[in-house]
């Protein structure tokens, strides 16, 4: 839904595929019949993999289904004049080596760091307060303590110790992100040399143990316990605990009371930008500008990147080795290896020849011959059973003015204030609210009071919207993929949920609904359909303890290689998981390069 501009804001006309996105990444030159490597999908991990392989001398082509590169890290002008980071919307986790190795600044990447970075306003109806309280957190610890002390002086004193505790755990985990997990397959069944090589990958684990030292049992609890249990040991004030708990559940169909939710929190605090640990920021031009910078780096070294080229299937030789891909238009592209940036489910259940009984009905319908058994039955079964539940509905909103929060009134003239650049947490005054929102979704209902993370990237990057206007990202949960009572996510249900979210925002910032010019509502089925995210899951599959490290995506196949020789995973479904990190793409590229040298 879109509406015309009014007030200070004037919307300008634009093509649904603006030139700044379209011209640079259409197919360059002619499609060649053969490359050394083919990458399925131009999401950020696929682009990172291509950039590294091409720098290593591996002639690489990337095929993207959509008309725009970036996967979920994309900028799209859904409403004329407004440029949205349509899916992912913040940057922090991208590995530092990727910035430097791929020279992303040289290729146009510009960042806007946020400080402060977190704002949680209170409603506090009936308290008699003239201005409701709010919790503002940033890089200044003294200021943080000042804000926390409104709710609990004891928590204000504990907060620096908590930050140091979590930073130490992030420091220990960090090296694990940049290497493949221990190759248990080689360790169990390989030659003596392969077993010795697999033992070398234990080094980051041992290093992590040394960093954590005698506190290892406490850190183990952070990774395995419900985040509420962890936070209760540090703090007493609910606004602080609930604000911190949002990072433990965001993007995950879990409650703060779910065991293991602590790891998701860690996953969101282990990043950093420009040398500042834990910093988050906006990419100038939206998240698609990051993908464009990575693609520019890859193309500068000779990689070929094609849009609107859908891979229909992976080709396998009679000897059981990948030999390329077939595109939807029937074109065959040969290659020595194929890296899939698609989810494990799409890669192995849709694009890859499987075992006889899995494809029999499909093949009978197509009149084709039965494949040999390239993927083991147990492997296929495990992939089909991956937990892909997602609670997320993303709503992108165009507005003609900034939200005016009761807890932090706007400045005259509409100038952005510090809290406008933050992740603004709504319905997050209490961890019980988060749990209740989760329970609604487990019953098949959208949350009555959804957890809302509201971000306004145009508060720091005015290039995203016409003068006086802003783009707002609403990352909301919990919304089930399948609704109760036989309902489906049609236009009526989408709008009913978005209206509920807007009603919640209106309570904190009266006048918000009147500022809305247009909105783009993406429920879990929409995220799946548009971006290929299974179940709408932004991580490709849940970041649960049983789907991490040794077991991502499944046990014995966590090192980017698949059971089919020459086929690799390089996306969020591989170690170390989701988020705009690039680690899976980089790690997979190095694995592929080592294997190519030994062919």
From TrEMBL:
InterPro entries, alphabetized: FAD/NAD-bd_sf (IPR036188)
Pfam family, one: NAD_binding_8
Superkingdom of this protein's organism: Eukaryota
Annotated GO biological process: mitochondrion organization
A GO cellular component annotation in the UniProt record: mitochondrial matrix
Family per similarity comment: Belongs to the carotenoid/retinoid oxidoreductase family.
Name under which the protein is recorded: Pyridine nucleotide-disulphide oxidoreductase domain 2
Species the sequence originates in: Equus caballus
Gene: PYROXD2
């Amino acid at each position: 839904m879109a509406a015309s501009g009014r007030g200070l804001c004037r919307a300008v006309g634009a093509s649904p595929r603006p030139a700044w996105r379209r011209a640079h990444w259409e197919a360059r030159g002619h499609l060649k019949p053969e490359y050394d490597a083919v990458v399925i999908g131009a999401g950020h991990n696929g682009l990172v993999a291509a950039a590294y392989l091409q720098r290593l001398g591996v002639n690489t082509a990337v095929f993207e289904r959509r008309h725009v590169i970036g996967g979920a890290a994309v900028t799209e002008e859904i409403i004329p004049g407004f440029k949205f980071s349509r899916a992912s919307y913040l940057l922090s986790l991208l590995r530092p080596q990727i910035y430097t190795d791929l020279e992303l600044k040289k290729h146009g990447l510009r960042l806007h760091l946020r400080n402060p970075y977190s704002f949680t306003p209170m409603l506090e109806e009936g308290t008699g307060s003239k201005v409701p309280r709010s919790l503002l957190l940033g890089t200044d610890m003294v200021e943080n303590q000042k804000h926390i002390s409104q709710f609990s002086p004891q928590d204000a004193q504990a907060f620096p110790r908590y930050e140091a505790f979590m930073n130490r755990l992030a420091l220990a985990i960090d090296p694990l992100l940049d290497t493949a997990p221990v190759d248990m397959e080689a360790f169990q069944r390989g030659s003596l040399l392969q077993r010795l090589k697999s033992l070398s990958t234990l080094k980051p684990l041992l290093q992590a143990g040394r960093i954590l030292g005698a506190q290892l049992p406490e850190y183990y609890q952070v990774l395995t316990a419900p985040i509420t249990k962890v936070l209760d040991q540090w703090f007493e004030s609910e606004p602080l605990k609930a604000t911190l708990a949002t990072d433990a559940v965001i993007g995950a169909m879990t409650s703060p009371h779910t065991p293991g939710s602590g790891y998701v929190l860690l996953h969101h605090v282990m990043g950093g930008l420009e040398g500042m640990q834990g910093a988050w920021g906006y990419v100038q031009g939206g998240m698609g500008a990051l993908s464009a910078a990575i693609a520019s780096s890859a193309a500068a070294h000779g990689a070929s990147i094609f849009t609107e080229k859908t891979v229909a299937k992976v080709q396998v030789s009679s000897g059981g080795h990948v030999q390329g891909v077939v595109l939807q238009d029937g074109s065959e592209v040969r290659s020595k290896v194929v890296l899939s940036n698609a989810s494990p489910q799409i890669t192995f259940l849709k694009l890859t020849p499987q075992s006889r009984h899995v494809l029999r009905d499909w093949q009978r319908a197509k009149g084709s011959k039965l494949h040999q058994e390239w993927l083991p039955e147990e492997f296929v079964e495990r992939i089909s059973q991956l937990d892909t539940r997602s609670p997320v509905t993303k709503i992108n909103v165009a507005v003609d003015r900034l939200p005016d929060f009761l807890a932090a009134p706007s400045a005259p003239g509409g100038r952005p204030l510090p809290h406008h650049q933050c992740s603004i947490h709504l319905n997050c005054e209490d961890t019980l609210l988060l749990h209740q929102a989760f329970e609604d979704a487990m019953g098949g209902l959208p949350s009555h009071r959804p957890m809302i993370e509201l971000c306004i990237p145009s508060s720091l990057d005015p290039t995203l919207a016409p003068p006086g206007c802003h783009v707002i990202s609403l990352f909301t949960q919990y919304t089930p993929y399948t609704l109760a009572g036989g309902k489906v996510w049609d236009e009526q249900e989408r709008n009913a949920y978005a209206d509920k979210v807007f009603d919640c925002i209106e309570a904190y910032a009266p006048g918000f609904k009147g500022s809305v010019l247009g909105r783009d509502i993406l429920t879990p089925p929409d995220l799946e359909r548009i971006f290929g995210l299974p179940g709408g899951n932004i991580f490709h599959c849940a970041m649960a303890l049983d789907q991490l490290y040794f077991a991502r995506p499944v046990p014995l196949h966590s090192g980017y290689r698949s059971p089919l020789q020459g086929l690799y995973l390089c996306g969020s479904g591989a170690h170390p998981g989701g988020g705009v990190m690039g680690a899976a793409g980089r790690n997979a590229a190095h694995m592929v390069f080592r294997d190519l040298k030994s062919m």
